[in-house]
């Protein structure tokens, strides 16, 4: 039969074992001595083991008592740590957060938010997964990720979403491209070009915007290369494999061999939003959304 021991009895025994004096132990626990003695006797009865040797002059630990003291100290230390960690978990200070992001654009914004969160919540384990905007919305519905950074052009009817920013799209050309001599371009001038875009089979938000813009301009882009990696995209452009459209913040991505031109008239803007599923809320997610709210004060979509 398992022993039925209360945490209070463990605390009482530790005090007596460390003080080796019932009077001092009672004062330390702020209780009367008789109830303390009864609790220790009850503990020994439950364990069916003598923990203390008592004489008129002193109290000493038996070998079993010495072993039990060490175990009790570990139990109490673990319990106190568990209480602290549970309270921290409730405040969203520890745990894990799985974050989705689309690698084709706005990486700087995503990393800035993550850096700020890491500074304030260093004990949260962050797991980043690169996936398209459409893949993220599906993963959110399936609770495979906790939060995502998406282009809200994709269907987001089943998730919560907060727009963070929007910015114009610009043309990215090789510096040797004939159109690089112009200060700005009309999108129709790119009708005969080969294009480099995000992967069409994965629901890249930036690709959807490019396709819609080209269709509004009266043509379908001739896509020859597909990648969701912005550095690979810039490398392909620099190699003369094609042209593309990127958010204007891409100008901060230093890459030799490419140049950027604005579009006249301007076309649809690229947008970035943070998305989550209300059915999958946690304290850690709430903390992350709080950081986003502080950094980007915009109305929720």
Characterize this entry briefly:
40% of the residues lie in helices and 22% in strands.
Account of the protein in words:
With 301 residues, the chain is an alpha/beta fold. The chain has three domains: 7-90, Orthogonal Bundle (Arc Repressor Mutant, subunit A), CATH 1.10.10; 95-165 and 271-295, 3-Layer(aba) Sandwich (D-Maltodextrin-Binding Protein, domain 2), CATH 3.40.190; 169-268, Periplasmic binding protein-like II (D-Maltodextrin-Binding Protein, domain 2). It is built from nine helices and 13 strands. It has helices spanning 7-19, 22-29, 33-47, 63-90, 107-120, 133-141, 205-216, 230-238, 283-295, and strands at 52-54, 59-61, 95-101, 124-130, 147-150, 160-167, 169-174, 184-185, 194-197, 222-226, 244-247, 258-263, 270-276. Strand 9 (194-197), helix 7 (205-216) and strand 10 form a beta-alpha-beta unit. The longest helix has 28 residues, at 63-90.
